Amino acid sequence: MHKFLKPLLAAFLFLLAFSVSTAYACGCGIYIPREGDANVAQERALVRWDGAREDIVMSLGVLGQSQEAAIVLPIPSRAEVKLAPSNLFDELAELTKPLVRDEVEWTFGFGVGSSAMPDAVGGAPRGVNVLSRQNIGPFDVANLEASDKDALKNWLDENEFQLDASVIDLMQPYVDEKWTFVAVRLRPENAGQELGGDLQPLWISFDSDKLVYPMRASAHAKNSQQLFLYVLADHRIEKQNAFGASRVSYADWIEPANLSNSALAPLVTRKFFLTKFIDTVNPAQVKDDFKFSVAPQDTTFREVTIRRVKQDATPLALLACFVAMILGMSVFVIALVMFTRRRAVVQ
């Protein structure tokens, strides 16, 4: 599920009681596998913001297998949900991959050659208002308003989400701020299949006067998780907070004219600035959502991967020694001849 709302988001895992199964926290929500054991290993999210409306496309990479799963995502306002192209994040990864620069590393030994190794690079209980509910591919999606976290838990339980009470406590700050919740149940499209690998991305759109990426649920994750977060906005974006290691790996303009027949085309409807963040989130450091600001300048940037190309220097060294010997012998012979001639003149 994080395959979609997580395009708006470093995801994490944390153990919770869910019948006989396990629940895991993702960056912006909670992933709950059913009838199996699975966890979110990687989260990729694309966020687009025009100053008034925000889109989050999220893709989750799931380790393990489960027959069904559920995800609960807090959103600032009522959301519209649909599927995104399955190859969207593959295209983003290709577009923003580091440039490769070769650097020769001379070695001594026998054999001339090179090898390249890159650097590590139902009905609603009182207190819950069901704004909408729809089936989208393998997803059963409900958009909920909740004035009380216990009422939210009751609705989720009655609709077979069955969250532990401690998980609902994570939603309390969002209830207080009058956010809505996107509850998603995932089922394989064909009976007998299991959920695993990269899940189909979800595209969530909602009104928002500020750019934000929900992260508070990650505070109770069991393990750290890698998050690839792409942000499309009118200018380069800076992240105001980080919960672990974080870096910008790409920053540049992107225009519709360069995206014919691309999975990005539906999102890049005009010129945007694309900023890519790579985070390794430490759950112990999560205290808030990701918040952003506009950078002072639209400075472009792209990471460079140094590829070490090993080159055997032995032939060159032998050649240098041979040349030095020839030169030395030549100097000796010239000096000897001059000395002999001078001696002959003196006599």
Number of strands: 23
The number of helical elements comes to 5
Secondary-structure element order, N to C: HEEEEEEEEHEEEEHHEEEEEEEEEEEH
The structural domain count equals 2
Radius of gyration: 30 Å
Major sheet: size, sense and barrel closure? 9 strands, mixed
Q: Helical content, roughly?
A: 10-25%
In angstroms, what separates the terminal alpha carbons?
Answer: 103 Å
- Which structural class fits the helix and strand makeup? alpha+beta
Strand content: 35-45%
Low-confidence stretches: 1-25, 32-41, 111-122
The average pLDDT is: 76
Global geometry: elongated
Task: Give a quick precis of the structure.
With 347 residues, the protein is an alpha+beta fold. The chain has five helices and 23 strands. The strands form five sheets. Strands 5, 6, 8, 14, 15, 17, 19, 20 and 22 form a nine-stranded mixed sheet that branches.
Structure description:
- By secondary structure, the protein is of the alpha+beta class.
- The chain folds into 2 domains: 2-105 and 118-310, no CATH class; 314-346.
- Helices cover 19% and strands 43% of the residues.
- The protein contains 5 helices and 23 strands.
- α3 (149-158) crosses α4.
- Mean pLDDT is 76; it is low at 1-25, 32-41 and 111-122.
Break the fold down into its secondary structure elements and pairings.
Blueprint: H1 2-5, E1 17-18, E2 21-22, E3 24-25, E4 30-34, E5 37-49, E6 53-66, E7 68-75, E8 79-83, H2 88-95, E9 99-107, E10 116-118, E11 128-136, E12 139-146, H3 149-158, H4 165-176, E13 180-186, E14 195-198, E15 202-207, E16 212-213, E17 225-233, E18 237-239, E19 244-254, E20 272-281, E21 290-294, E22 301-302, E23 304-312, H5 314-346
Parallel strand pairs: 5-17, 9-23
Antiparallel strand pairs: 1-2, 3-4, 4-7, 5-6, 6-14, 6-15, 7-13, 8-15, 10-23, 11-12, 12-13, 16-21, 17-20, 18-21, 19-20, 19-22
Helix pairs in contact: 3-4
